[in-house]
Amino acid sequence: MEVFGHDLTREPEAVRAAIGLTGQFSAIDDVLTCRENLQLMADPRLLFLDEPTTGLDPRGRLGMWDVIRTQVREGSTLLLTTQYLEEADELANEIAVVDHGKIIARGTADELKAQVGGERIEVVSHDPADLARAARLLAPGGTAAIEEHTRRITIAADGGAAQLVDVVRRLGEAGIKIDDIALRRPTLDDVFLALTGHIAEELPEGEEEAA
Asked: From the centroid of its chain, how far is CA 6?
């Protein structure tokens, strides 16, 4: 295996000179000297980030996203591991989905989302008593998904914004009041659930859900 043209076995020093690492729990490795810590992290061509936003508040997370984008703009290659799938969606050019230590899918965010189907329309009924009637109106074939506790109806959408407008019109004509309506694309959480049968969750150290 080579990294930037350097063989890992024959040229380990050259490989180490080209890469950097920021661990999950501490920015400083207290086993290393100050100079060695700087050499480990300062301006690498390839930077490994192990869950860099774990424990950060929303402002800190957005700040870290800006740092990551800056590194990429300046020419660094980053390999980021994260359990926050919206983070992978926001930052990654290519995503590898990892479940229990194995890569089960890889591609761009759009390519992965295409595996779980297209867009959907979600409607939140104002009155729980209108749920069944609204579902029959929007999906006469019985294909609507109903969540009674959230008063939410979900239907497949292949007509984009025009279909959304039509749904609003039909509900209005039927006298069905709604609290919310949205046209949504699949998320990476939907992708992970479809691929693995369970949501992304925190695993013991050493096991990552998405990279």
From this structure: 32
Tokens of 104: 């089960």
Return all residues near 23 (Cβ < 8 A) that are at least 6 apart.
29, 50
Distance CA 199, CA 84 (A): 11
**The pair of three-digit structure tokens given for residue 128, joined into one six-digit string:** 């729980």
pLDDT of residue 39: 65
CB 166 within 8 A of CB 159: yes
CB-CB contact of 119 with 185 (8 Å)? yes
Sequence-distant (6+) residues with CB within 8 A of 68 are: 49, 52, 78, 80, 91
Side chain identity, residue 44? P
CATH number of 119-184: 3.30.70.100
Please, is 76 exposed, middle or buried when counting C-beta atoms within 10 Å of its C-beta (0-12, 13-18, 19+)? middle
- d(C-alpha 167, C-alpha 65), whole Å: 37
Q: Which two tokens stand for residue 43?
A: 């301006």
Contacts of 46 (CB under 8 A, 6+ apart): 3, 4, 18, 19, 20, 76, 77, 78, 79
Domain ranges of the chain: 2-81, 119-184
What is the tens place of the pLDDT at every residue in 186-211? 888 888 888 887 666 554 444 444 55
Q: What's the pLDDT score for residue 73? A: 92
Distance separating alpha carbons of residues 141 and 147, to the nearest angstrom: 17
